[in-house]
Design a protein that fits this description.
single chain; alpha/beta; Aspartate Aminotransferase, domain 1; binds pyridoxal-5'-phosphate
Length: about 450
């Protein structure tokens, strides 16, 4: 029975909605039939594997995800000790974690906070962002990199990305500078450091504050200098998929005493215990403190700080394993037509947080959505980082429009993040490679 016959039959005694359902079901049946026929022909011509989404066998039985934390017994013990002790927040572990981040990065000051988002907000407060100020950032990032500017009443301005590294393009930063520009928030996307030299030069030339969103890049370096020392302020995130985790958490690193003082105030209610900063001296007694600016409660708890430090004990191992997996992926995908891998800039040492494959859609007869769904059916769960921030309805309602950053929009069409986390076994890595290669071969034009 053709679709038309079905339609006629149901037109007689069905309502409109029912008819639509019938049409849809018939369309699905036809599509299934078309796929089965073409797959059979295809399989006979080329002895390649049939994707699981079309009825083939998945590359693995259990699902792996694009990212995952690695919490061990030492981490649990470290948290347990704090929970059994007298301080569960505002205790000694928080300051220990700050000293630990300073010694790890070489930066003069660290302030730990309760998320990467609050780290960015504090950095914007310390940079003095307010109404009428513009801050240039990238659209290929998590929304927090731009939202932090809005929290302060400023305006995020989106510069385009380099289509090979996917990081913000310094030439595009330059092109977006106006007399209102006050800062640049450059994101080390996937862990690869931005082009610091050029961005520093632009910031110096126009008197801008350089904030590095290093949520992905703790442990990375540029020209031998570790992240934490490259920008005026550097923000980390300790969300569970990041290189080290505190459950939730973040930190701001700076070499400036002036910015440090502002960060301390911003993250804890604008309150100071430092007599030199107080206005009403001599003060009332040892209990006395003063609120001298408007701040927030962005403090990290002591048990989160303990978890963070325990994770920091293994950060170099985590990074080494991530780099090993990246090397294996790079080798495995180098000759796969239809798959483009991210380019690394010279002079950088990258602690990779994400591994992105970009589909060359001119060479494949599928959409990104089809490839992504096919990867899920192989039991390799990917993710897409990121939808250009200004595409979101919230930003659209603020007046941002599609088409502003053509490179970012073009790159977005083909990208997906495949699993990358230190706890992946070699088999997990090989299964992921298998799935990508299998689908690239199947869908190649
Ligand atoms: C680039 C980037 N910036 C900022 C953040 C915000 O960090 P958090 O989730 O810790 O608030 C994230 C986290 O996903 C991120 O990926």
């Amino acid at each position: 029975m053709s679709a038309q016959d079905v339609e006629l039959l149901y037109l007689k005694d069905s309502g409109k909605e029912e008819l639509q359902e019938v049409r849809k079901a018939e369309k699905r049946r036809q599509e299934k039939e078309r796929r089965t026929v073409s797959n059979t022909v295809f399989q006979e011509e080329y002895p390649m594997e049939l994707p699981a989404i079309l009825g083939g066998t998945p590359v693995r039985e259990d699902k792996i995800f694009y990212g995952r934390q690695w919490v061990n017994e030492d981490d649990i013990e470290a948290v347990r000790k704090v929970l059994e002790g007298p301080y569960i927040t505002c205790g000694p572990k928080v300051s220990e974690a700050e000293r630990r981040l300073e010694s790890y990065t070489g930066a003069k000051h660290a302030v730990v906070v309760n998320s990467g988002t609050s780290a960015l907000h504090c950095a914007c407060i310390a940079a003095g962002i307010g109404e009428g100020d513009e801050v240039i950032t990238t659209p290929i990032t998590f929304a927090a990199s731009a939202n932090c500017v809005l929290y302060c009443g400023g305006t995020p301005v989106f510069a385009d990305i380099d289509p090979e590294t996917y990081n913000i393009d310094p030439d595009s930063i330059r092109a977006h500078i106006t007399p209102r520009t006050k800062a640049v928030i450059a994101v080390d996307f996937t862990g690869q450091v931005v082009r610091v030299k050029e961005i520093r030069e632009i910031c110096d030339e126009f008197g801008l504050i350089f904030i590095e969103d290093a949520a992905h890049s703790i442990g990375s370096a540029y020209n031998g200098v570790k992240v934490g020392n490259l920008a005026d302020m550097t923000c980390f995130s300790f969300h569970p998929v990041k290189t080290v985790t505190a459950g939730e958490g973040g930190a701001i690193l700076t070499n400036s005493d002036e910015l440090y003082n502002k960060l301390v105030l911003a993250h804890a209610h604008g309150i100071t215990h430092d007599e030199e900063q107080m206005e009403d001296a001599p003060h009332e007694g040892v209990w006395y403190y003063e609120q001298i600016s408007l701040g927030y409660n962005y403090r990290m708890t002591d048990f989160q700080a303990a978890l963070l430090m325990s994770q920091m004990d293994r950060i170099d191992d985590f990074i080494a394993r991530r780099r090993e997996i990246v090397k294996r992926y790079d080798e495995a995908f180098a000759d796969v037509e239809g798959i483009i891998v991210q380019k690394e800039i010279p002079n950088s040492y990258t602690s990779r947080h994400l591994y992105i494959i970009r589909l060359d859609l001119d060479k494949l007869k599928c959409t990104r959505r089809e490839f992504f769904d096919a990867m899920s059916a192989e039991n390799v769960q990917c993710q897409v980082h990121y939808v250009p921030v200004y595409w979101f309805p919230y930003y659209r309602h603020l007046g941002y429009e599609k088409g502003m950053c053509p490179n970012a929009e073009e790159v977005y069409k083909g990208i997906m993040s495949i699993p990358l986390y230190p706890r992946m076994s070699d088999k997990d890595v090989e299964d992921t490679i298998h799935a990508v290669r299998k689908l690239a071969e199947y869908y190649r034009k």
